[in-house]
Amino acid sequence: MLQQWSRERAQLVAALTPYAVAIGRARHRSLSGIQWRGPFIVTAAEALAGSDQVLVVSERGARPASVIACDLATDVAVLRSDGADGAEPLPTNLGTSSAGGVELEAGAGVIIVGRAQRGALVGFGSVRLAGPAWRSRRGGSIARRLEFSAQLDDRFEGALVADLTGVAAAMLVPGPRGSLLGIPAATVERIVGAVEQHGYLPRPYLGLRLQALWLDEATRERWGRTARSVAAVAGIESGSPAELAGLAPGDLLEAVDGVVVDDVEAFAAQIAQSSPGRALELRLRRGGQPQTLRITVAEWRRPAH
Amino acid sequence: MNLVLEHRSARLTAREREVLALVAAGVSNKGIARELQVSPNTVKFHVAAILEKLDAATRAEAVVAALRRGEITL
């Protein structure tokens, strides 16, 4: 019985290792990545530390890849390598019924597959926490909160987390206090999909500078807010969507499209979720009076010279 | 027109704000170096100084801290 269990585990690992890659950079530790689909490879954005060319090592050898998107808010980086492996598409659980997978629950077993320069890295663990959608401290909107317990080293950063049927559920990234977080497949796919559509990751732009303003209890009560802080407009770039919308310094931003935003990070996360071209309804207070403005999100461009 | 609140911690220099705005947009060190016409090592130097000033362990933390302080544009 034990032998069969061991064999089944090894088969599961063998089915996943073609998708596990190592990401090598000169003078840096290697990390892991996932051969996601087509020419796209994903890895942990933070760990790339601003690299734009890396070496991707798979089962079949090494090939160069370019970093084409680096989203620090979700910690998802998308790499492109045209010498794709031609493997079958990775079976992923995107949280939709059509994907066929079952959502990970707390206590479920997981297999974590990464790669070092010398070969595949495999770890087994379990889901420590499975919660609803959340906003990371980095200002990213993440489809589900997933935390794992497992014994892993830092070479697993960016590794593939799959359930015990071999369906990819998440990408592994380090969280606060040494925790292991999973960026759900649906969130990874949202970013890969945008990159596939545009060739890069379009970033929303409003032309606003904000600062957190602390509200006293009386004001909070009067305005019916629970959060202690609110995002205050500190500056507006000329010609920006913020200026066109009629925003003014001193405006206190209370809600975006009906979603109450507690502070600067929450506001930034709401904007990060939208895409260029979209119109948003901003609820704000100007001189203490409630007001509503519409703003059309533009696309961030590199500053012109 | 700008409202600026004073902070106890050191403010970023104009150059550091430029670098961080590009970091926030996911531009690589080399891309930032090309943009600002400096060497990639200078970019790394700026990034290290930014992390120090904002007491941030990671680039993502630095971006969030700078957003909250109104040092970079959303």
Q: What keywords describe this structure?
A:
heterodimer, A: 305 residues, alpha+beta, Thrombin, subunit H, Pdz3 Domain, 2 domains, six-stranded antiparallel β-barrel, six-stranded antiparallel barrel, 22 strands, elongated, B: 74 residues, mainly alpha, Arc Repressor Mutant, subunit A, 58% helix, 0% strand
Task: Describe the 3D structure.
The complex is a heterodimer of chains A (305) and B (74). Mean pLDDT of chain A is 88; it is low at 95-100. In chain A, the strands form 5 sheets. Chain A has a 6-stranded antiparallel beta barrel. Chain A has a 6-stranded antiparallel barrel with strand order 7-8-11-14-13-12. In chain A, strands 16, 17, 18, 19, 20 and 21 form a 6-stranded antiparallel beta sheet that branches. Chain A is elongated. Chain A has 6 helices and 22 strands. Chain A has 2 domains: 2-198, Beta Barrel (Thrombin, subunit H); 204-299, PDZ domain (Pdz3 Domain, Roll). Helices cover 18% and strands 42% of the residues of chain A. Chain A is α+β, with helices and mostly antiparallel strands. In chain A, β12 and β13 form a beta hairpin. Chain A has helices at 2-16, 45-48, 185-198, 217-223, 241-245, 264-273; strands at 20-24, 31-37, 40-44, 53-58, 61-71, 76-80, 109-116, 119-131, 134-135, 141-142, 145-149, 160-163, 168-174, 180-184, 204-205, 208-214, 229-236, 252-256, 259-260, 279-286, 289-296, 298-299. With 74 residues, chain B is mainly α. Chain B has one domain: Arc Repressor Mutant, subunit A, CATH 1.10.10.10. In chain B, 58% of the residues lie in helices and 0% in strands. Chain B contains 4 helices and no strands. The longest helix of chain B has 14 residues, at 40-53. The mean pLDDT of chain B is 86. The chains are: A alpha+beta (305), B mainly alpha (74). The interface between A and B is large, with 43 and 36 residues.
